[in-house]
């Protein structure tokens, strides 16, 4: 495995940056932040029906592929002499089941004992390393968007809620350890919903409806979280879902959760009276 390199020295030489761009605003924020940091050439691998077209204008060159076309991705990075890459943004779960793998992907899948996000993306990272591409942490260039410790948005929570913060954090860490999910919704010492494959928004919907207002979302990292391709994230959609489903407090693991468009998220939380808390 290629040894990690400190961010400070990553781009003090003229190597281009590769971005494996999934859906949503995440890859756009990475590209914009990389440009601000002085990266001159960005080569983006984008997914048909997934990635925002804006990546075209932020990239030197874009290669559009379908989910499962691993060979095309590797050839693109190799041709453009990409040595550092970032994986940003997910792929719709439904598209993972519509996978049309090329031969390279089929061979990779055949070697895996378990086909979950950790094993699949870990195997892709190994394939990238074989052609000399180091997969960086997905938070690279966005370190200022990580959740701080303590209250960071919306109203201060009342003392009586801290029991639920600690309770929810303990339960969320346990389901994360079991690789079930990374979020729970709790209220008054009761677990209302647990995240699984359906994602955080659906977990909030089920828990919020059961809680009938005033419920709390707690989101954590896994004990073996690989931050190269699997980062806990909240954004404007999270606040919108909390508002719709009666979630009054959002607790995230500090320094390990990314807040996409952090300024806008805090502003929306302030306006919506939804408390944001980072828990260490």
TrEMBL record:
- What Pfam families does the record tag this protein with? LpxI_C (PF06230), LpxI_N (PF17930)
Record-annotated LpxI N-terminal domain positions: 17-144
Q: Which residue numbers delimit the LpxI C-terminal domain?
A: 149-277
* The protein's name: Uncharacterized conserved protein
């Amino acid at each position: 495995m290629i040894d990690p390199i400190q961010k400070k020295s990553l781009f003090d030489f003229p190597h281009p940056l590769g971005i494996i761009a999934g859906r949503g605003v995440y890859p756009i924020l990475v590209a914009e932040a990389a440009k601000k940091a002085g990266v001159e050439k960005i080569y983006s691998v984008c997914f048909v029906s997934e990635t925002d077209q804006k990546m075209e204008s932020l990239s030197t060159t874009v290669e559009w592929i379908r989910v499962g076309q691993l060979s095309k991705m590797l050839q693109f990075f190799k041709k453009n002499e990409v040595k550092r890459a970032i994986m940003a943004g997910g792929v719709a779960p439904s598209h993972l089941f519509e996978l049309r793998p090329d031969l390279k992907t089929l061979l990779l899948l055949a070697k895996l004992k378990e086909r979950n996000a950790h094993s699949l993306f870990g195997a892709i990272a190994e394939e990238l390393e074989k052609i000399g591409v180091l997969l960086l942490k997905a938070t690279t260039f966005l370190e200022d968007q990580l959740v701080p410790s303590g209250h960071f948005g919306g109203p201060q929570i009342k003392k009586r809620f801290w029991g639920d913060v600690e309770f929810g954090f303990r339960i969320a860490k346990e389901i994360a350890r079991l690789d079930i999910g990374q979020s729970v919704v709790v209220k008054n010492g009761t677990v209302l919903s647990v995240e699984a494959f359906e994602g955080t928004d659906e977990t909030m919907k089920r828990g919020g409806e059961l809680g009938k207002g005033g419920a709390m979302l707690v989101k954590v990292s896994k004990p073996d979280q690989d931050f190269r391709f699997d980062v806990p994230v909240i954004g404007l959609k999270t606040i919108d879902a909390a508002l719709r489903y009666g979630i009054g407090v959002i607790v995230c693991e500090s320094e390990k959760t990314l807040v996409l468009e952090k300024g806008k998220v805090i502003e929306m939380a302030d306006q919506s009276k939804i408390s944001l808390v980072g828990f260490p």
